From TrEMBL:
Taxon lineage: Bacteria, Pseudomonadati, Pseudomonadota, Betaproteobacteria, Burkholderiales
Signal peptide: none
Transmembrane intervals: 53-81, 101-125, 146-166, 172-194
InterPro entries reported for this sequence: PqiA-like
Entry keyword set: Membrane, Transmembrane, Transmembrane helix
Protein name listed in UniProt: Paraquat-inducible protein A
Length: 209
């Protein structure tokens, strides 16, 4: 594709809802462009979001490591002391005959969020150097499909409810992983608000420079 053709592609946006093609608009802070035909969001103002996402992804990976390597809570009851980790919770569910639930927890709180963070890191690092990484299109599509499946916040809510119930019958000591899960939930909320389609705009912008 010639440079002029790529520049023309970069200045149009295609509606994901009805495939209508529009000229890209210059958006201001807080503005969102929607398709006048079907109402689907076309794009929104991101400012310098792409420069902020990479540090947040790195912070998210750090919080993810802390959340999974350290105990969430420690429970002391009747002279017995035990520490609860995410991996331990998944193993306990499996041993109690709830293998399907264990697999769901493993996928939605560990595998899918980790995949999202690693794909984002892989995509973000080369783009400022005007390089599109290998498998770019495929990974952007995977990232888009993973968006509804990360449920760290649901797991965190369940943990908080369980802690509140346990405090009436046992001594509960908060572990470092709980704080890491809170931070990870906040970071993922901000990170995943950066729509995967923005990678296409970034890639074409770098290609036309």
């Amino acid at each position: 594709m010639s440079t002029s053709a790529m520049q023309q592609v970069h200045h149009v946006v295609i509606c994901e809802g009805c495939d209508a093609v529009y000229q890209k608009a210059v958006l201001g802070r807080g503005q969102v462009a929607r398709c006048p035909r079907c109402g689907t969001e076309l794009e929104r103002y991101t400012g310098r979001a792409q420069q902020r996402i990479l540090p947040m992804v790195l912070a998210g990976l750090l919080m993810f490591a802390v959340a999974n390597l350290f105990p969430i809570v420690a429970i002391s009851l009747g002279g017995q002391y035990s520490e609860v980790t995410l991996a331990g919770a998944v193993q306990a569910l499996s041993q109690e005959g709830m293998a399907e639930v264990a697999l769901l927890v493993l996928a939605t709180t560990l595998l899918f969020p980790l995949m999202q963070l690693l794909i984002l890191l892989y995509l973000l690092v080369p783009l400022p150097r005007q390089r599109r990484p290998l498998g770019f299109a495929w990974l952007v599509r995977i990232l888009q499909s993973l968006l509804p499946w990360g449920m760290v916040e649901v797991f965190l809510l369940g943990v908080l409810v369980a802690i509140i119930k346990l405090t009436s019958s046992a001594e509960v000591i908060i572990g470092p992983a709980l704080g890491a899960f809170v931070a990870l939930t906040v970071l993922l909320t901000v990170i995943l608000s950066f729509q995967p389609r923005n990678f296409w705009h970034m890639a074409f912008a770098e290609s036309t420079e």
